[in-house]
């Protein structure tokens, strides 16, 4: 692959300057003991920066809220030790020439999916519902437990979570991160307000699509007010949910425009369209991907993700245990060159080859992802 490839064009978004369009996608690791990222975490991210990756989006990071994340080994963005750990991560990445943003995370209705939880703690659910059950990879015992209704979020709950996101963003900026990313997909808290399967509220935070968008937009606006104008905000969104892989938040481009337009107006700079394969058409009658529609509808920078270089989606590869190589990078190049989207996020191949960007630039063969080796070690 020639260095003249569209993958290696620079890009600037606010103060964030990227040497190329290759992004390391967020992947949960559970290697941060008591939520504090250690030297091994810093070394893990440094290797990808040294390998030439333009932007690193960290694994999901818990905001300062009691039910943000249920796994104590998932890193958090609060507390002196954790912030010091993240500062070390940022310094290592910057020293290697990379750029990095944290993906702030609240699991919302999916509280309890990763580990046992305190039953006295209230999961944050817009309407008390886990979601409309469909095709899911969760085990039956968890689904049976999680689908029991709980109390809906109160106005105080909503205010508390918005404030927690803002505090986490301020802490990330203090640690030296190059921007802020938000996980607003897959059925987690921000996404659960967008989805009718979890949001049946009839107040200002639910009802029609415009009102269902108010909570994630309010979180974005609070973060923008906290961090100022320099740092970009990245927002991951999706149609599918982990409660139901066939769920959708928008049935038409016009509906998607309502959602994304509100997020951009609130302060989002990069829309991260999460799908299982980056080139899957989002709506009938067009071959545009979800990232392509996001670009067309809003005009902002967009990022695609999903099975780059791999012949099966993550869910499919976990079921079968194998993930054959699919040399679809040329299709990524074509779509970036045409202006369909601007960035491509790659997850599993960054586990198989920390120097993936250098490998692509030099024309080397795509690495083969072996789940038993690479996902287990997460080195």
TrEMBL record:
Keywords from the UniProt entry: Flavoprotein, FMN, NADP, Oxidoreductase
Coiled-coil annotated spans: none
UniProt keyword NADP, yes or no: yes
InterPro entries given in the database record: Aldolase_TIM, OxRdtase_FMN_N, YqjM-like
Cofactor dependency: FMN
One family name in Pfam for this protein: Oxidored_FMN
GO MF entry, a single one: FMN binding
Ranges for domain NADH:flavin oxidoreductase/NADH oxidase N-terminal: 7-363
SUPFAM superfamilies from the UniProt entry: FMN-linked oxidoreductases
Protein name in UniProt: NADH:flavin oxidoreductase/NADH oxidase
Species whose genome carries this gene: Rhodococcus ruber BKS 20-38
Biological classification of the source: Bacteria, Bacillati, Actinomycetota, Actinomycetes, Mycobacteriales
């Amino acid at each position: 692959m020639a260095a003249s490839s569209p993958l290696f064009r620079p890009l600037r978004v606010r103060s964030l300057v990227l040497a190329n369009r290759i992004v390391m996608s967020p992947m949960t690791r559970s290697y941060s003991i008591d939520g504090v990222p250690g030297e091994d975490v810093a070394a893990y991210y440094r290797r990808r920066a040294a390998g030439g990756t333009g932007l690193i989006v960290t694994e999901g990071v818990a905001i300062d809220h009691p039910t943000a994340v249920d796994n104590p080994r998932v890193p958090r963005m609060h507390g002196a030790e954790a912030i010091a750990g993240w500062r070390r991560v940022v310094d290592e990445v910057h020293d290697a020439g990379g750029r990095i943003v944290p993906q702030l995370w609240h699991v919302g209705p999916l509280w309890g999916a990763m580990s046992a939880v305190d039953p006295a703690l209230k999961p944050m659910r817009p309407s008390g519902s886990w979601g409309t059950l469909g095709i899911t990879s969760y085990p039956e015992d968890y689904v049976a437990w999680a689908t029991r209704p709980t109390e809906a979020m109160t106005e105080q709950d909503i205010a508390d979570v918005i404030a927690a996101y803002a505090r986490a963003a301020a802490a990330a900026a203090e640690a030296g991160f190059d921007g802020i990313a938000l996980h607003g997909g897959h059925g987690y808290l921000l996404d659960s307000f967008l989805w009718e399967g979890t949001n049946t509220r009839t107040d200002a935070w639910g009802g029609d699509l415009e009102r269902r968008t108010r909570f994630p937009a309010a979180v974005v606006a609070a973060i923008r007010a906290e961090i100022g104008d320099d740092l970009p905000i990245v927002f991951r969104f999706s149609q599918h949910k982990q409660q139901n892989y066939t769920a959708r938040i928008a049935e038409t481009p016009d509906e998607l425009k309502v959602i994304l337009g509100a997020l951009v107006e609130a302060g989002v700079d990069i829309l991260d369209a999460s799908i299982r394969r980056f080139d899957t058409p989002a709506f009938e009658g067009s071959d545009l991907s979800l990232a392509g529609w996001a670009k067309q509808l809003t005009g902002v920078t967009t990022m695609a993700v999903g099975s780059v270089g791999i012949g099966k989606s993550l869910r499919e590869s976990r079921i079968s245990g194998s993930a054959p190589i699919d040399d679809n990078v040329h299709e990524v190049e074509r779509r970036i060159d045409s202006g369909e989207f601007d960035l491509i996020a790659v997850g599993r191949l960054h586990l198989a080859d920390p120097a993936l960007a250098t490998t692509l630039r030099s024309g080397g063969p795509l690495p083969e992802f072996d789940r038993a080796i690479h996902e287990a070690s997460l080195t």
